[in-house]
Amino acid sequence: MKRVLLTVLLVLIVLTACEAKDRSVDSRVITKSFPEIIEPHNPEQAEQSGDVVVLLEGIRNRDKWNTFMKNVKKKHQDQIRVTKYTIEGGSIIHKLIYDGTAIQFTYDDSRDLYGSKQGMKTDTCKGIGTMKSEQGRIFYVLTGCEKEENAFSIPKR
Q: What is the residue range of the signal peptide feature (predicted)?
């Protein structure tokens, strides 16, 4: 009787260990969803939703961007939504989801009057670097992306 009980107990321990291992594979996936976008998606609403807002006159919620950058540097999972506004006031939404090794990037210009109207574009990138413009400004850009075209940049200062 003790042998049967020990065998059953051993089988349960092994099955529990296997189950725990399977869950760790999925633990890299970030399940937190972005706040709902309220239309029209103006800068004030985007800021209140927690977006990093990039306007011609500056950046709002820069602290959220700085936290995201620190987490990427430390290889900690994080995600961020950046909403950039054109001269005409159209919003272009960028979602960056970092899983600890790569950044899943989504670009949506469907709210911009001059956008592509082709729907969202996605890409996978290895990290974030900097680039200097011809005017001397420094921007953060995604690096090591699978697709050659990269539609993301945000001023460093």
A: 1-20
